[in-house]
Automatic annotation (TrEMBL):
<feature type="transmembrane region" description="Helical">
    <location>
        <begin position="311"/>
        <end position="331"/>
    </location>
</feature>
<keyword id="KW-1133">Transmembrane helix</keyword>
<feature type="domain" description="Dynamin N-terminal">
    <location>
        <begin position="44"/>
        <end position="202"/>
    </location>
</feature>
<dbReference type="InterPro" id="IPR027417">
    <property type="entry name" value="P-loop_NTPase"/>
</dbReference>
<keyword id="KW-0472">Membrane</keyword>
<dbReference type="InterPro" id="IPR051943">
    <property type="entry name" value="TRAFAC_Dynamin-like_GTPase"/>
</dbReference>
<dbReference type="Pfam" id="PF00350">
    <property type="entry name" value="Dynamin_N"/>
</dbReference>
<keyword id="KW-0812">Transmembrane</keyword>
<feature type="transmembrane region" description="Helical">
    <location>
        <begin position="337"/>
        <end position="355"/>
    </location>
</feature>
<dbReference type="InterPro" id="IPR045063">
    <property type="entry name" value="Dynamin_N"/>
</dbReference>
<protein>
    <submittedName>
        <fullName>Dynamin family protein</fullName>
    </submittedName>
</protein>
Amino acid sequence: MQHVMEQFAEKIRECYRDPLDPIATQFMFRRPPTVGELQRPPQVLLLGNHSSGKSTFVNHLLGAGVQKTGVAPTDDGFTIVTYGQVSTDRDGPTVVSNPDLPYEGLRHFGDQLVSHVRLKLRPAELLRTVTLIDSPGMIDEAKSEDGRGYDFPGVVRWFAERADLVMVFFDPDKPGTTGETLRVFKESLAGIEHKLLIILNKVDQFDNLHDFARAYGALCWNLGKVVQRKDLPMIYNTFVPREGKPKSRLPMDDFEKAREDLIEEIRRIPTRRMDNQITQLQAFAERLRLHALVLDAAASRFRMLRARWRSILFLLFAALTGGAVFSGLIIALPAVAVAALAAVALVELVTLPGAKRRIVGRLDEIFEKLHDRELLVRDRAEDLRAMWDEVHPHAREVAEKRGLQSFKKMRWADRTVLDELLQQDIPKLRSNLYDALRGGPAEDAPPRDDRPAA
């Protein structure tokens, strides 16, 4: 199975190398995942309010006191716990500067974040197949003047996009009410609901079913305001047993089973990892296609407008020159040439920049026109518009800073390859993965050498 998974991983890497990376470079889209990110071990990101039991759960999984625990916040950083034959810790600058580790991208968030990153190597058996990422406990809204000092929702988004499972812990005292928790759900976890596991932890603290029902209801109410789904995800109600703690009056069998189910989900992550990478590939290709097609159409509008103005000026110059020669006013030709050059400069310096700003301001209109048929399909329209809302800010920034005149026309072969990748190759790759996981044939994974030459 390891050999089969590596075959799928190589095909995914090929898709990024060609055609996605060249098109992303041409239109200044975000870079594809690095080789280190694609080869990373399966990862679990643990989020939650402070004192919700994340670190205690990590220690329970590993059978050792790897993380500090306590009622008050005990850790204000991101801790990456992975396998190592000898227990050792490494600081953030060492972690993000190591090309063999998939965390170089964290440099983008600045030194303040890097100083809050730590890597722990531990010889726990579970860590041979899974890396655990513990996060700072979420608190009430952190204000800019005395907050964390870095983009916390952005960092959570970065880890969540690369994780194969995201576990969000809540406790009876704070069932989803902190400001950062609500913000993280809205800004960091949107679009990756398929990876989320929601946990109401510490249920052994309840004295009776009435208290449990109140906390569970409060959690559902808060989640309903931030989870963009018609129905709420499943909530795992559980606890971590600790020696010397008084036994709860509630029947605990179902809560025990919920904890075992959570652990089983973690053990299954190596098989989920490849499916997540295919999903990540599809999301990258879909957003790149939107970004490139809209910018290409905007650049085409600008090129046509510039060509039209140049044609008008050429005809005007030709008419003036011909009129001067016909009238015998040969001495007027230098003045005509100077006037023509002045007109060209006026168009290039005044008229065209204004036209370019107007075109950039109409990217929404261009998107609607390019996808008018797709937007008529009701179940597709909502997803497509949400995807464009995500892509639009970067597309506009690129168009404004680089300039529409700098984009070469997108080749038809590149469009065809992108469409085939999204409509044929990725669905077939996913289907073949499911066959392989069920013990079926894996040799018929989609070849890529039958594509049109890029």
